[in-house]
């Protein structure tokens, strides 16, 4: 099933080429500077179409023959260079219409802004690099690159988050991009629609990073963000069979189940601040044991009161309760999936991650006491996957050791070159001294003869 999209990396990049240095600095301060370095990639539509068909709405993951794999927040941070921790991006449905929204032509019944209007505003801004420019440029970025919708319009409620430009960089925009992409993949699969929104370049580069076959040339291993380190997806890739991927025949060894930041990437604040705990769903079979959940943990089981009307007594209301997972504002990013928190996440039966209880008997002074501990059970794909994952970890450790040795060898080589140069200089000075001594000897001989 082919697809139509309003995603347009080329439109975004055309505006980037028009920016002055001061305007680029303003976008950098807002936390979106890495997007300005994205090269001109061409979407590989056939490959993306096949990949999207492998999406499971229930598991929010791609299902391949060897197992399932999802897009994690770490993936987003490494690929796009956007922050995935911080304040959650929330578009409140009943938020009052602001004066900023009215300035962009939004109304209570139509809270959207057209891309063409934003483009015209960018043209009229000229060389200005003030707050007004930052808002217009980011809205254009949202509509063409990060949050493109099927109707080609931008939600005006984003202006609520852009009112204080100095505070824009504190939001977890990368997590919101992942949430939006997941929603678009779900809608396409569930509604069987040809129109799709979402940041498709994230999906394409994610495929390059995780599927080690049928991908273009890796230009520079150390480039950040990773969207910049792949050879631009030129049109010839779409026509060459060398770059075709048969997702139905993928083998376990053809999938990189979990991305690991390089030592250089770990020096970047937005990568270093991501905790390791939320990498739980990075690959199949990586967790064999139940995970103990302590009080005040990031993922908590609670109840959400609901009022339901009794059929027999319409005047009386009965309070019902249903299970929900509540995610704290500081630690919500432990989930490997969506990052924009709009409401508690409903827990469906037979879900992949379940809350349960473990009964422990402890001996008290008055006798045995039964206690219950909360446990988060994560499904496993077997011992074989665990062994393979352990081998992958060992390989990564060996690669790290080899890189360190190479760095040491380079340092030693440089020191040897310096030492060699010093020896050559000393030898040259010694030769000059020997020649000088010889000349002095001859002079002394002549003086003695006189």
TrEMBL record:
Residues 388-422 form a coiled coil. It comes from the Eukaryota. Keywords: Coiled coil, Hydrolase. Residues 46-258 form the Aminotransferase-like plant mobile domain. One of its GO terms (molecular function) is hydrolase activity. GO terms for biological process: meristem maintenance. This is Aminotransferase-like plant mobile domain-containing protein. It comes from Helianthus annuus (Common sunflower).
């Amino acid at each position: 099933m082919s697809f139509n999209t309003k995603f347009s990396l080329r439109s975004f990049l055309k505006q980037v080429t028009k920016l002055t240095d001061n305007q680029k600095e303003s976008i950098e301060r807002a936390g979106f500077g890495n997007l300005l370095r994205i090269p001109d990639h061409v979407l590989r539509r056939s490959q993306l179409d096949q990949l999207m068909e492998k999406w499971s709405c229930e598991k929010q993951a791609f299902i391949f023959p060897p197992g399932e794999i999802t897009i994690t927040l770490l993936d987003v941070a490494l690929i796009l260079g956007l922050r995935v921790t911080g304040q959650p991006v929330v578009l409140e449905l009943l938020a009052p219409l602001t004066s900023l929204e009215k300035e962009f032509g939004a109304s209570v019944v139509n809270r959207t802004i057209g891309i063409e209007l934003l483009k015209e505003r960018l043209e009229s801004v000229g060389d200005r690099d003030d707050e007004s420019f930052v808002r217009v440029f980011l809205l254009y970025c949202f509509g063409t690159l990060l949050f493109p919708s099927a109707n080609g319009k931008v939600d005006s409620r984003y202006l609520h988050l852009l009112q204080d430009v100095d505070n824009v960089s504190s939001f977890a925009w990368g997590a919101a991009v992942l949430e939006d992409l997941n929603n678009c993949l779900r809608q396409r699969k569930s509604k069987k629609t040809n129109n799709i929104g979402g940041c498709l370049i994230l999906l394409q580069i994610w495929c390059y990073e995780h599927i080690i076959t049928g991908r273009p040339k890796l230009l520079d291993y150390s480039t950040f963000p990773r969207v910049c380190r792949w050879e631009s997806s030129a049109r010839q890739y779409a026509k060459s069979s060398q770059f075709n991927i048969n997702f139905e025949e993928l083998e376990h060894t053809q999938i990189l189940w979990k991305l690991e930041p390089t030592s250089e990437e770990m020096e970047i604040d937005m990568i270093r601040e991501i905790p390791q705990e939320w990498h739980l769903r990075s690959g199949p079979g990586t967790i064999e044991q139940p995970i103990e959940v302590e009080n005040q943990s990031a993922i908590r089981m609670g109840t959400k009161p609901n009022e339901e009307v009794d059929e027999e007594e319409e005047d009386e209301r009965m309070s019902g309760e249903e299970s929900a997972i509540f995610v704290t504002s500081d630690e919500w990013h432990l989930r490997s999936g969506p990052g924009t928190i709009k409401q508690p996440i409903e827990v469906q039966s037979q879900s992949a991650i379940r809350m349960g209880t473990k009964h422990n008997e402890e001996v008290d002074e008055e006798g045995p006491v039964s206690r219950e501990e909360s446990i988060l059970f994560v499904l496993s794909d077997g011992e074989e996957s665990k062994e393979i994952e352990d081998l992958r970890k060992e390989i990564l450790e060996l690669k790290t050791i080899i890189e360190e040795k190479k760095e040491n060898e380079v340092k030693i080589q440089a020191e040897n070159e310096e030492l060699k140069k010093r020896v050559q200089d000393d030898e040259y000075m010694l030769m000059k001294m020997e020649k000088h001594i010889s000349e002095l000897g001859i002079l002394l001989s002549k003086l003695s003869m006189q």
